[in-house]
Amino acid sequence: xxxxxxxxxxxxxxxxxxxxxxxxxxxxxxxxxxxxxxxxxxxxxxxxxxxxxxxxxxxxxxxxxxxxxxxxxxxxxxxxxxxxxxxxxxxxxxxxxxxxxxxxxxxxxxxxxxxxxxxxxxxxxxxxxxxxxxxxxxxxxxxxxxxxxxxxxxxxxxxxxxxxxxxxxxxxxxxxxxxxxxxxxxxxxxxxxxxxxxxxxxxxxxxxxxxxxxxxxxxxxxxxxxxxxxxxxxxxxxxxxxxxxxxxxxxxxxxxxxxxxxxxxxxxxxxxxxxxxxxxxxxxxxxxxxxxxxxxxxxxxxxxxxxxxxxxxxxxxxxxxxxxxxxxxxxxxxxxxxxxxx
Length: 342
Ligand SMILES: Nc1ncnc2c1ncn2[C@@H]1O[C@H](COP(=O)(O)OP(=O)(O)OP(=O)(O)O)[C@@H](O)[C@H]1O
Description:
By secondary structure, the protein is α/β, with parallel strands linked by helices.
């Protein structure tokens, strides 16, 4: 249960049934390299037609291989990069084009936990300064010393000793540094936290501690997370829902158990089985191939679904080109023509 007596608890239970985050038809395009001098830059479609809802107090796990668009989606929600198509609705407000004061306010409500606790903390700042900085920047305190009590409370929340406040980050282990990063992210009482691979730079032995801490904080403060990860076991542990990204497309989204126990999309099945095929003759050659084995251009012959190479639903012969992201039942969504829709 959310402890509303805690002063870092989320204090906006406006309409609990309304998703805190709704993303509709989101697209993000980057300018790539120019094909010829002075020519127009090549367009990189990093995300296309991403749609989902995230309920308050829940965790959405975002999974996908390298380059699938996970961080881009996180940054688009944080409004740190321009959106090419679609909308992002946070707490009922369309934030797709926010600027100025509204954007500044948004940076309080949505915070980021970084992947690498070694590079994300300024080595010249003491822990007190690191955690108090956002409070100072947003005018919540007028000096670092004024923030000492609040920062002390944050240290308690992340299970770090108070005497850590006057030390520099290099004196801490990776797990402790990530706790400092989490305390800094909590300082402004955010309602949504984007955690971009928050444990992948840590020793396997401390990953579970940090993930468990994040779960405890979710309970205590009523936080909502978007949790980005490669590691499928970590995502399974922390997420309520899981979305699978592949080459900028969301191919499947469902609650955790449905994704792991009854995946629908061919690519999700490949990702979950993830057993490398040593024999090149037997390797899949299209979009189902793991990134390391995939040729730069797809070499599936003829028109048809780009996942047909690993699909058992149509005997591998689906001729329809663009599979829709459609509801299949019980909140299970999949980008495939052959899942049954309701
Ligand atoms: N600033 C940028 N300019 C141009 N292309 C970019 C930019 N940022 C990301 N991309 C491209 O967008 C695609 C998605 O990248 P993104 O970093 O979101 O993937 P990811 O799933 O987070 O990968 P990883 O797991 O390796 O972090 C990639 O093709 C990447 O090269």
